Amino acid sequence: AASMFLRLLSDIQWRAGHPKWRRMTSSQRSTSTTEPHPLSLPAQAQVVICGGGITGTSVAYHLSKMGWKDIVLLEQGRLAAGTTRFCAGIVSTARPVSIELKMAHYSNKLYQRLEQETGVQTGYMKTGSISLAQTQDRLISLKRIASSLNVMGIPCEIISPKKALQLHPLINIHDLVGAMYVPEDALVSSANVSLALATAASRNGVQIHERTSVSHVTIQKGQVTGVETDRGRIQCEYFVNCAGQWAYELGHSGEEPVHIPLHACEHFYLLTHPLKEPLSSSLPTIVDPDGRIYIRNWQGGILSGGFEKNPKPLFTEGRNQLEIQNLQEDWDHFGPLLSALLRRMPGLEALQIMQLVNCPESFTPDMRCIMGESPTARGYFVLAGMNSAGISYGGGAGKYLAEWIVNGYPSENVWPLDLKRFGTLQSSRTFLRHRVMEVMPLMCDLKVPRWDFQTGRQLRTSPLYDRLDAQGARWMEKHGFERVKYFVPPGSDLLDLGHSKTFYKPDWFDIVGSEVKCCKEAVCVIDMSSFTKFEISSTGNQALESLQYLFSNDLDVPVGHVVHTGMLNEKGGYENDCSIARLSKRSFFMISPTDQQVHCWAWLKDHLPDDSNLVMEDVTWKYTALNLIGPRAVDVLSELSYAPMTAEHFPSLFCKEMSVGYANGIRVMSITHTGEPGFVLYIPIEYALHVYNEVMNMGQKYGIRNAGYYALRSLRIEKFFAFWGQDLDAFTTPMECGREFQVKLDKGIPFLGHEALWQQKQNGVYKRFTMFILEDHDTDMDLWPWWGEPIFRNGRYVGKTTSSAYSYTLERHVCLGFVHHFDEKTGEELVVTTDFINQGEYEIDIAGQRFQAKAKLYPFSSLFTQRRRKDEVELSGYQRE
Amino acid sequence: FYLTPPQVNSILKANEYSFKVPEFDGKNVSSVLGFDSNQLPANAPIEDRRSAATCLQTRGMLLGVFDGHAGCACAQAVSERLFYYIAVSLLPHETLLEIENAVESGRALLPILQWHKHPNDYFSKEASKLYFNSLRTYWQELIDLNSGETTDVREALINAFKRLDNDISLEAQVGNPNSFLNYLVLQVAFSGATACVAHVDGVDLHIANTGDSRAMLGVQEEDGSWSAVNLSYDHNAQNEHEVERVKMEHPKSEEKSLVKQDRLLGLLMPFRAFGDVKFKWSIELQKRVVESGPDQLNDNEYTKFIPPNYHTPPYLTAEPEVIHHKLRPQDKFLVLATDGLWETMHRQDVARIVGEYLTGVHHQQPIAVGGYKVTLGQMHGLLTERRARISSVFEDQNAATHLIRHAVGNNEFGTVDHERLSKMLSLPEELARMYRDDITITVVQFNSHVIGAY
Q: So where does this one cross the membrane (chain B) (predicted)?
């Protein structure tokens, strides 16, 4: 212990030598001469972390806490001297995304105890925060957040404007309709938090080297081997890129680029001198999203910044620099935010300005931070792109990443933050520049259900894009691919359709309703080309053997059969949910969700044997996929192919290459992703337009029409179909979502996840995917569910919804979600039985309002078939006329 | 009746014109960066004219504004012809010879001027031959005179003004066999025009002024503020020296009748002008020309009318007053404008508005708090003001347009009031002249770097 202390003193002299770090206003960099590096770099280490800001120090702290000692942290300038130093230091837990909320909550708890643990003053002060609503819609969004905070046990209250005034006497409440009070939100000195984490990590054995910059990371055979720095090379197994706004450039510095899509924007906040009567340091932080500003107390004065509508992206062309020089203050740019500040706190007019701080922050294409392992380089981890919430997320994100490195996966589902949700396509600098200009204002914009990004669009499109667009298609985007939401009927006067923002019944309600009706009664075409498509083949039996190990269902089916199966991890959780067609004895065609393109590829690459006789190809771009849904799909297709398509000749879950119109070699599968009868046609792209035209022409007499994903969603949710990425994740097993039938425990091959699933089969599951039908919900008048709504069973919180849709068949809202069984006294998770589900009274909480719901574990198959038969009779009768 | 901001803009911008002096080899060697010009009619048709041209056989640039009265014919003729007279006056003997030889032998003529014209600024096709012949006679006389001395700009300007006015007078006396031209030359002679012309060559700026248009220099003081320096004297009743001059040129007996109601002979506002032969010719000459002239002229009460107390003509001259100014780096721009502008705006305001416009377009100084004590409220006020300024500046890409917007739309607080602007611009033709005069403005911007390097 004594020697460690000595090392601490010598290695982190910076603490004594640079007291300026304690003061976040010191705008001038320390001019001290470069001190001799007390320690030379080690020749090797298990982990090298690049970046000494809040994320890097947090990762180091948590890794060392978990018992890893052989860690080196490199910082090109000085610890906590980048964005971290300038950070406003607000720890705010009010986050809409559940995983972000959890990270922020953990960070708060961590920072609270950090001073005691390390002896470094962190300036932690529990002030609470008040988020203000100037509109009813804003209040709804706050209520939704409040609901999810409350069920996590985080105190949170929706309060009246008057109550807000009592908590913060300086605010003007005349334009407010309500507010949300989170009493446990805190303020910290972010630089000191970072230094405290570094100190603790250092005590645990982490070596910290300042003024050492990483030039690039060396990768051999897809595995990190070391780091080249300006002070020599370090061999390592793991590299963690915590370089903040330089993470993109660092990722691209090596021979094999690691794409980390983030882009810096200037971010401004104001510091003032103290008020005549200095503000109390316990005064809550004010967040006024409608005014785009936040205001915290700061040394008796205030600190106020915001997210302007016209952000200034910078370093698009890349410009590495040691630390962030204090960039130019731009008062004209800050003007609107200053107006908002004085509108909120008119009493501050006479307050004297100290400084306008310009502190670049890095933003990501979807406003969520980036963590995880590179899909191409094993051992290359990333934690960056904090979207100006580095302090709020830093603690929790560092913990999850450390778990990921040590255990192979974090303790929570972090897919929404996973680096692998992005591919190379999001790494264009132009794309990033345009997207972050949209993202930064979005930090404050009201986000209603089904909002979509407007920049960086029309990147990946189907060959039918123009045809569909001309027919009134309205588009949304997934993984860069344009997908149709719905089709505005010709002559519709709803010019602004899709532009109205609402938490209530949307304006496309009837349009989607008619598309759904057509799917159920006649036939619809949905372009589903965005789905990820791989082909896996081998010279011998390798493909089958490997896939049998990687997938839980039995793939040793006759050629021409399609199998729905999960791609599971060790714990039986879904890494992917896909449909696999056996094209021949030795080749398979695999269809996965759109955003699986990078993740699934990496997973297969990682798990398939390194065998040159086993070939995997991403054929996503080669095929256009048309989904024909509805009872008349069979008629359209048989007329176009002169082949019988009835159930006897073309049973469900069947795959065959056939001709459609003039085009031959169309891969037709009898699957629909919705549970309705129908087919998906995989068409080589040059035939796409021809086949589409043929289908539409032939389909006319069967009442064919175009449909979009909203209709598809309504259909699949009322059919209780779970979607990966929305309902299913790496922490959900087939046993928990009623898909035991897709698991072949006895197929004779101990597939990945076999053991875990077997255990679950024996012991039962701890959560259960359940379908809820809202009972007393008025579709026209009430707030619509979205996802993430708390579920209450007999008045007690049991879980959250994962998706929801209006069922036009049931004429009710359907929510899907997971039910847990928490012990009433201890909170311990208990086995969830069928009886437990069936014997409860359920309520769904939508923005604080609870609606009664009926729980179901199985879809209304009988109801639907009956209805359909009845409809078929009606339709056939209609045709006779 | 209400005009929307885009409608207001389309009216204000209809006649705007900008010229940027081309940069050669990336280095602008001219002391002039360029100019912005615009005019807003009150009369229908407008009686103001403007001209701008670069001298091709000598150095320098010519810019002028011309305010016509009793019709636009004289102003139009002066705007077409004066710069040729000036250019020719400035030409060295050899060049004059070269040009004369070229004309004589039917060879291509060296271009003398490069015009910078708005599409609405027209030249009379029918009169071009007549005008050319008069101009040729002038240079032939200059060749014969061959003084051998280097041409003095001041003298050249004075000679050119006087010669052109003389030619206008002669052409009207001689008459023309072409009836259209015959009527035209009479119209030119019987109407009048003032002229304010700038000649810029390096740091030498000459202003030749005849009448009550005005040239004003915008100077940026060391503290960044703007001040105005007059580079011309108005030739009207407000100018004591002018009143004195007129009185000196006529017998004492006429002293009382010379200037009445601030007008020359109780009739004419400007004390110097082109044309206006009614104030220059003898009564006999006037009568002879009118009687032998076309019927239209005879039917015109104005032309037939002889000014009262008309004893010792001429009462009016076109001879300009010339002011020379050596440009300094702080001299940022020159405003030439007809009295329509100066009636509504003080020169100090003109200097400030144009100065702020020109600097604002190029760089609005960023604000830095530095060590100053600034409150949030003060900063907010400052930023609001800057935003307002920028938004009004960015509506205009032309300094002259910006100035007209202020001249017409300024309210009592000195800021542009859209409602007022809309009202002033939507006045019916017959009323417009009662509320405002034709306004013509040319703003010349100087290149301080080039000027500083002299």
A: none
Whether residues A353 and B386 touch (CB distance < 8 A) is answered with no
Where among A395, A420, A445 does a domain terminate?
A420
Instruction: Tally the domains of chain B.
Output: 1
Which domain covers residue B102, as residue numbers?
Answer: 15-360+436-452
Residue B93 belongs to domain with CATH number: 3.60.40.10
Is residue B428 situated within a structural domain? Answer: no
Sheet of B331-337: strands edge to edge? B17-20, B32-40, B439-446, B331-337, B214-220, B226-230
Q: Is A787 helix (H, G, I), strand (E, B) or coil?
A: coil
Is A110 among the domain residues? yes
**Sequence-ordered strand ranges (E) for B56-211:** 61-69, 113-115, 192-201, 204-210
Within-domain flag for B366: no
Q: How far apart are the first and last CA of chain A?
A: 93
In this structure, what token pair is assigned to residue A402? 């450390």
Residue B124 CB contacts under 8 Å (≥ 6 apart), including other chains? B76, B77, B80, B131, B184
pTM: 0.72
ipTM above 0.85, yes or no: no
C-alpha span between A267 and A248 (Å, rounded): 19
Mean per-residue pLDDT pooled into runs of 10, chain A (881 residues): 34 37 35 51 96 96 96 91 82 93 97 95 95 96 95 95 96 96 96 95 94 94 94 96 93 92 93 94 96 95 94 75 62 92 95 90 95 95 95 96 96 96 92 93 89 90 95 93 93 60 89 95 96 96 95 95 95 96 96 95 93 94 96 94 88 93 95 88 97 96 96 94 94 94 92 95 96 95 95 96 95 96 93 94 96 92 48 37 31
Domain end marker among A420, A435, A468: A420
DSSP state of B27: B
CA distance B183 to B171: 11
CB-based contact, A275 to chain B, within 8 Å:
no
Nearest by CB to A352, from B366, B375, B386: name it: B375
Do B66 and B195 meet the contact criterion of CB atoms below 8 Å apart?
A: yes
**Which of B365, B372, B376 would you mutate first to test chain A, the one with the most A CBs within 10 A?**
B376
CB contact under 8 A, B369 and A272: no
Please, are residues B441 and B341 in contact by the beta-carbon 8 Å criterion?
A: yes
Q: Among B368, B376, B384, whose Cβ lies nearest the Cβ of A349? A: B376
On whether residue A334 sits in a domain, the answer given is yes
Q: Which domain holds residue A851?
A: 765-880
Q: Could you tell me which residues come within 8 angstroms of residue A445 by beta carbon, excluding any fewer than 6 positions away?
A: A289
Query: Domain of A229: which CATH number?
Result: 3.50.50.60
